[in-house]
Structure formats: structure tokens, C-alpha cells
């Protein structure tokens, strides 16, 4: 058998040749976040030759024309399971479709009777250069790339020299890849700070949420201004753990400062675990650092795994919440804004965790104070991300309430007190009429 270095050389092809492997009617999968841009460019050039190719990606961060230009409608059926900035225009134009799913159940689509979007004809991934043993890494964004690669009929990977390596299950051998493309285009990733006028509100909410996190807790946090601010108020905690879907900037800083030691975790003791690390985090610190492990999102988001953790705390945000506690975190009316993600899994898992709790955070208003986020009814068409029975603590800049054990009437009263004063009278009238 040839050494892996020779097999690597044999597998190298151009981005154009990679795109030429796609046939009409194929199912093509792309990795979370940054796609292999040269291959996507070459695929767009072939649009006149292709028909009914299904492209599936999670959270596109690169606004490629394929996602947002109707002239590609004949060639590509575009699907996302989490909306990113790269496809927002396409979502508004209704040329991008949304795939609702629960990640740990995703791999079970191979069972009879279920639509199988898991076994793709082609997977175009992005990997690091190989190490001395011939293993490549999926960088800071593992997600379900390894699972998709193992189920794809054909695996093609762009080799990106900027990708980091992590511990955990974030690797694949070059022998498991059919073709390698060494053309790459860098994509800068940053997390823009919230507008100055919103920072004070977000920090107040973050301080309230942080007050519910205790020494030894295992913490999950979603992305966003509030989540990133929470870390500022946890610097005096001891031995926090991290088990999360996404590892935020704040998570990484808590490990760096020695606050998050993972000492009290049940699983992966002493390790910070997630399915990806946000690009704005200190990736140089995470690189090849045994304190961090990336595992498949099919594992990190599994409810029994979450529930098994010591004092699991889930912190997530929502766009709106109604007076019964139903949380709409992914759409504004019928228009998808983000995605299902792991919010419900972590909120359920944290409630089943011994000593666990979940925290739902939101500013009380939107659109500069013109609209209340706490509403009698969710806007028609809104997707309920977390059902009311799984909502635990709710936090706005006006305080904290816990909905567990409260009746509908008591929930309405408690949530009204968290609303902006300008909307409380209206909410009370609606609550009286409803309950």
C-alpha cells in the first residue's frame, strides 16, 4: 500500500474538476459556515449544464450568489437547516428553503420510511492540511461534517491551511477522502459588537442571568450579545464546566482565566466540549489545546448526554415569548431568521440534569422600543422553538422570573412584570381577557 503522502498527491484535483463531479439530480452537502468557495464558484459556472441539484448547508456565512440569485433556480434547489447571513437575502426572496430538524435524530434518516438527506452524492468539505500521520481536522467548525463525510458517496475536501486542530473527534484520515482541492479563499470572521445604545440593556440582562450560575455548574450559552456579556459577570466563579453546542468567545475566555476548569463535570471532566468554536474566539489558544474537545453536534445535543452533566445550565435567547411561556426564537412570523439549533434540546436536558436549570434571555423590546417582545400571542406563523412546559427562568432587563409550577394566569402576571413599563397595561388587559 502506498504511504499516505503519495495517496494525497494522487487525490489532488482543481476546483473546476471537483465541480465537474456533480451531476443533475445530485444531493450535495456543504459544511457549516464557510464553504469551499473556489468549488462553489466553479459550481456556479456550471449552472447552465445542471438541473435539480440539491445543495444543503447549515448556517451559510458567505453570501455566495448561488444562495441569493434567482437565476440559479433551475440548476439548484437550495436548502439550509440554520439560516446564516450568507443566505438571508435568498430567504427573503423565498428561493432558499428551510429544513426543520433535530440534530441527534438527523443520522437516523437512514431508517426505512424517512426522507434521507443524510447520504449525499457529494460532500464538499473544508479541512486542515494533514498531520504526520495523515489525519486532517475540520478546524473550529466540526458540527456534523465528519458524520456527513462518512455517509457521502463521494468526499471532496478543500485544504485550508488556516484551520486549527482540536482534540475530541475532530479528524478524518486522507484515505477517507476521495479528492483534495488545494485552492482556497480566506473568509474573515468577526462578531460585530451590539449598537452602543443596546449595550447597557444587554449587560443588565447578562448580569441577571449570571446571578443564576453557581460554582461547579456546567454551562451552555448560545451566541449573541447577551451570551457574550455573561462571561463578564462570571469571573468570580469557581470550577465551571462547559458542555455546549457552540463554544463562544466568552466560553474560551473562561477557560483561559481558569474559571472554567471542568472539574465538576460528569462527562469529559476537565474538558470544554462543543461542536464548534465561533471564529471570533481566540482560536490560537484553542489550537491543539487538550482543554478543548470538539465532538459531533449529534452527540453534544443529545438530550441524555446533556441531562447526564453535573448541574447543566442552558442559557439561550429568544425573539419573542407569549404570556403562556411559548418561545419563538427562530422566526419572525413565518419568516425564518435563524434556526432550530440546540435550544430546545439544551433546555429540556438541563431540566432533567440533577441540579440543572435553563435561562431564557431577551430584551423587553425591539425596534428601538416600539415593539414588545413579550406578547399576548405570538405573531401568526411564528415557529415555537421551545414549548411552554420546558421554559424555566426568563430574564429581561427588568428582572428574573421562574415559570415552572406557575399556572397560565400566574405566568402571564410574572411575564408582564418583565415587560417594558410602556406595554404592561396592555399586557394586563390581555391577560385578564385570556385567563
Describe the secondary-structure layout.
Elements: H1 4-11, E1 12-13, H2 15-19, E2 27-29, H3 37-45, E3 53-58, H4 65-68, E4 76-82, H5 88-92, E5 96-98, H6 103-106, E6 122-127, E7 135-137, H7 145-151, E8 155-159, E9 167-168, E10 171-173, E11 179-181, H8 196-210, E12 218-221, H9 225-230, E13 241-242, E14 246-247, H10 249-256, E15 272-274, E16 276-277, H11 283-286, E17 292-294, H12 297-300, H13 303-308, E18 312-317, E19 320-322, E20 327-328, E21 331-332, E22 335-336, H14 343-352, E23 357-361, E24 365-366, E25 371-372, E26 374-375, E27 393-396, E28 399-402, H15 408-418, H16 421-434
Helix pairs in contact: 15-16
Overview of this structure, please?
- With 435 residues, this protein is of the alpha/beta class.
- The chain has 2 domains: 4-181, Glutaconate Coenzyme A-transferase (3-Layer(aba) Sandwich); 196-434, Glutaconate Coenzyme A-transferase (3-Layer(aba) Sandwich), CATH 3.40.1080.
- The protein has 16 helices and 28 strands.
- The strands form 8 sheets. It has an 8-stranded parallel β-sheet.
- Helix 15 (408-418) runs antiparallel to helix 16.
- The radius of gyration is 22 Å and the shape is globular.
Amino acid at each position: 500500500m502506498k504511504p499516505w503522502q503519495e495517496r494525497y498527491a494522487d487525490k489532488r484535483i482543481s476546483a473546476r474538476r471537483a465541480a465537474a463531479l456533480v451531476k443533475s439530480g445530485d444531493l450535495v452537502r456543504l459544511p457549516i459556515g464557510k464553504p469551499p468557495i473556489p468549488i462553489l464558484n466553479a459550481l456556479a459556472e456550471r449552472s447552465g449544464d445542471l438541473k435539480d441539484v440539491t445543495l444543503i448547508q447549515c448556517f451559510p456565512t458567505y453570501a455566495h450568489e448561488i444562495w441569493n440569485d434567482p437565476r440559479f433556480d433551475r440548476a439548484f434547489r437550495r436548502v439550509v437547516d440554520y439560516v446564516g447571513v450568507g443566505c438571508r437575502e435568498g430567504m427573503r426572496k423565498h428561493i432558499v428553503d428551510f429544513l426543520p430538524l433535530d440534530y441527534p435524530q438527523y443520522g437516523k434518516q437512514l431508517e426505512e420510511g424517512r426522507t434521507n438527506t443524510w447520504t449525499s452524492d457529494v460532500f464538499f468539505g473544508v479541512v486542515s492540511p494533514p498531520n504526520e500521520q495523515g489525519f486532517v481536522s475540520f478546524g473550529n467548525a466540526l458540527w456534523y461534517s465528519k458524520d456527513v463525510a462518512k455517509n457521502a458517496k463521494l468526499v471532496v475536501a478543500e485544504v485550508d491551511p488556516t484551520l486549527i486542530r482540536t482534540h475530541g473527534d475532530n479528524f478524518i484520515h486522507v484515505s477517507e477522502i476521495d479528492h483534495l482541492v488545494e485552492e482556497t479563499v480566506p473568509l474573515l470572521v468577526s462578531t460585530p459588537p451590539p449598537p452602543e445604545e443596546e449595550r447597557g440593556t444587554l449587560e443588565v440582562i447578562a448580569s441577571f442571568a449570571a446571578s443564576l450560575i453557581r460554582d461547579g455548574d456546567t454551562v451552555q450559552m448560545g451566541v449573541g450579545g447577551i451570551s457574550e456579556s455573561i462571561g463578564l459577570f462570571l469571573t468570580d466563579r469557581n470550577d465551571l464546566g462547559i458542555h455546549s453546542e457552540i463554544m463562544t468567545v466568552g466560553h474560551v475566555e473562561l477557560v483561559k482565566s481558569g474559571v472554567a476548569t471542568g472539574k465538576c463535570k460528569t462527562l469529559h471532566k476537565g474538558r470544554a466540549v462543543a461542536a464548534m468554536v465561533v471564529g471570533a474566539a481566540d482560536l490560537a489558544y484553542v489550537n491543539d489545546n487538550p482543554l478543548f474537545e470538539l465532538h459531533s453536534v449529534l452527540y453534544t445535543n443529545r438530550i441524555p448526554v446533556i441531562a447526564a452533566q453535573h448541574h447543566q445550565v442552558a442559557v439561550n435567547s429568544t425573539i419573542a415569548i407569549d404570556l403562556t411561556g411559548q418561545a419563538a426564537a427562530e422566526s419572525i412570523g413565518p419568516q425564518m431568521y435563524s434556526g432550530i439549533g440546540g435550544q430546545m434540546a439544551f433546555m429540556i436536558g438541563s431540566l432533567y440534569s440533577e441540579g440543572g436549570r435553563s435561562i431564557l434571555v431577551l430584551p423587553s423590546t425591539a425596534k428601538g422600543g416600539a415593539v414588545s417582545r413579550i406578547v399576548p400571542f405570538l405573531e401568526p406563523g411564528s415557529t415555537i422553538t421551545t414549548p411552554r412546559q420546558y421554559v424555566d427562568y426568563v430574564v429581561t432587563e427588568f428582572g428574573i422570573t421562574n415559570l415552572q409550577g406557575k399556572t397560565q394566569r400566574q405566568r402571564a402576571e410574572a411575564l408582564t412584570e418583565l415587560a417594558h413599563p410602556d406595554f404592561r397595561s396592555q399586557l394586563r388587559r390581555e391577560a385578564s381577557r385570556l385567563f
